[in-house]
Amino acid sequence: MRIPEQLRRELPADPPPPARTGGRDRYLDLLRALALVRVVLYHNFGWFWLPLLFPSMGVMFALAGSLMTRSLSRPALGVIRGRLRRLLPPMWLFGAIVVTLQVLDGGGPHSDGHPTWWWAKLAFWVLPLSTPPYATDGLHGFGGHLESGWATQLVVPLWYLRAYLWYVLLSPLMLKALRRFPVLTLCTPLAIVIVMNVFFVDQDVVYPRVWETANDFAMFGSCWILGMAHQEGLLRKIPQYVLPSIAPLVMVAGFWYLQTRPVDPTQPTDIEAWPIAQAVWSLGFVAMLLHISPSWEQWPAPLERWNGLVSLLNSRAVSVYLWHVTALVLAVPLIDRLWDVDFFFQHLKWLLTSQWFTLLVGIPLLALLVLLFGWVEDVAAKRRPRLFPYPRRPRGRRRSAA
After folding, report:
1. Which of 55, 231, 257, 354 has a 20 to 30 A CA-CA distance from 293?
2. Does residue 70 sit within a domain?
3. How many structural domains are present in the chain?
């Protein structure tokens, strides 16, 4: 039975509130679905303002941190094992397909002159403590249908899984630190990303793997910990006017830092290119979302029509995130074939060059990929595999509502 919101606000931070055993928080489901949609749109259009409008990565890590904390009311080792079981099988399937395609396209063990090291690095496809290996260039593009660096595009989402893995592994320690030193624990990742990108920025060339892993972890670490603090009830102890007063100032600081960066005058500044700005902006934005944080066991009437899509995206969140770039990459050669059709060439050039058309072709491809591979998420979660986990409308609901 779910604990009423009024009672949750009165619970102490230690011990943590018991895990919810029934129902779903529709608000959190909605945020996760919006984050996934925003990621797909950004990777298709590249609009610089999208990460400002909705910083998906910070939101997703905060939600994951909150859920992880709820689970840590059980023994930590079992919780970590369960999280890894849900995360890794979809990535293993994705990795098996990507690595196989690279080998078929000329990116095998002898492609970089170090076959032994190539095989050794495949271990990062099993446990992504660092970036899994991929061919950055030199592939044949399957007869010229794809760019030679197509693998670099496909593995773009993997950084999220790598950072998520480290958060999961370190969550028991972070939770203990949060309960004892809440403010210091919350600010530590933010301080790390500032120090790294101000004083040691040149080290990304010297130690690229270590730098990349540490920087991504620190960039959204405060968001993860803020989600933990929300679940612990620590934010409820703060006077209600404090968080909505401070969070906008934090966002202003992140935006100010972004505007002071050296940029190409012909292009707008993209916050995703500047870790400090992204970390600060995301922290302030997430703090506002968590402050609002209504608890929806049922959808509000205006949003009920979106229940099916939101539930589907949540059920296949890892698959959508892993495969959406692949769908967009595959859409390009399919559209290129239409240039050979006289009607499209003579009358619809505007359509073939439109990014909206790429998205229009990419969405069915993504649906197909999720249909083919999404069932792995069910197996990983020890559920009955389903090809299309769209929720059914309960029988008699309309009659009872009337």
Report:
1. 257
2. yes
3. 1
